[in-house]
Amino acid sequence: MRQITLISTGGTIEKTYDEHAGTLSNRTSIVQEMLRLLRLEDTSINTLELMSKDSLEFTDSDRKRIAGAVELLTGSKEDPTECSGIVILHGTDTLCDTGEYLYQHLKSPTIPIILTGAMRPFEMKRSDALQNLNEAIFATAALDPGIYVVAHGNAHQFPGPIKDRERGTFVQGKDKSSSH
Predict the structure, then answer these.
(1) Among the listed residues 45, 13, 46, the one whose alpha carbon sits nearest the alpha carbon of residue 29
(2) Tell me: the pLDDT tens digits for 136-152?
């Protein structure tokens, strides 16, 4: 049985509509609702709701908190944990900033660490949220240890991925030309 940990940080993927205010916001994690819609054979997913914020409000302190959680979950080469992959749900606006931060601060990851999000909230029609979550979970079994952004049928390894706002997806920046 594969052991995956899903870290929830908020972002568009988890925004819900507030009928009283008429706004979309990060009020509470909806990860369990999304996971119930997936068929995950031989996969156990532990969830950790680390924060519930729009990624535009993230600070280096928030990124440090994410990195600390990842370090605890991965252990070390000498003392590994049972976790075989980590998926981080994150807002797409600053997802690449967090990916670069993790790349700089987590030396030699022992498992795949996957960041993903959505351009449209899970609750909206034509949302890419469930597809991206499913791809990210699959990627934990398919990719080598490292830090990646997975969305829209592609995986890009850090350093280098950027959000292409025109296309509404992630692409590999000029630092690296390959994607997985």
Answers:
(1) 13
(2) 999 999 999 999 999 99
